[in-house]
Amino acid sequence: MRAAALLNWLAVTVNPRYWVMMYPLNRKWDAELRRLLREGAAVKVIDEYNATIGPYTVWTENYPYAAFVPCESYRRRGLPIAPRVRPTRRTIRLAWRYFGGLTAAERRDRETARFIAAARDGGAA
Predict the structure, then answer these.
(1) Is 5 contained in some domain?
(2) Residue 27 belongs to a domain
(3) How many domains does the chain have?
(4) Contact residues for 9 (Cβ-Cβ < 8 A; gap 6+)
(5) Does residue 7 fall inside a structural domain?
(6) DSSP state of 53
(7) pLDDT per residue over 10-51, tens digit each?
(8) Rounded Cα–Cα distance for residues 89 and 33 (Å)
(9) 10 Å Cβ neighbour count for 48?
(10) Contact in structure between 66 and 24 (CB atoms under 8 Å)
């Protein structure tokens, strides 16, 4: 086992945050999300809870137990992905880093800190 794979395995095995997951595991969605991450698919943030990656809109909050769950059924578009399924814990960790690794609250806190710092310096944010 490579060092990165071993560290990832330890992170999801030892960390209680990964013990309880919502939604059933779907290997097709896992493979599709991994493919998009590997290919460097474009990410567009829709709002603080949703983003698109490739043709999919995913829920990005509630990390790690419910993150990167498709928001709608893509079967109508000919894609084999149903809503309310999740990728593997490893893929959730990879996607989290790919998407920037911040929750909505952390993003708001970062923006607030930037605004306060700019106001303190007398400049605009």
Answers:
(1) no
(2) yes
(3) 1
(4) 1, 90
(5) no
(6) E
(7) 777 777 777 788 889 999 999 999 999 999 888 888 887 888
(8) 12
(9) 14
(10) no
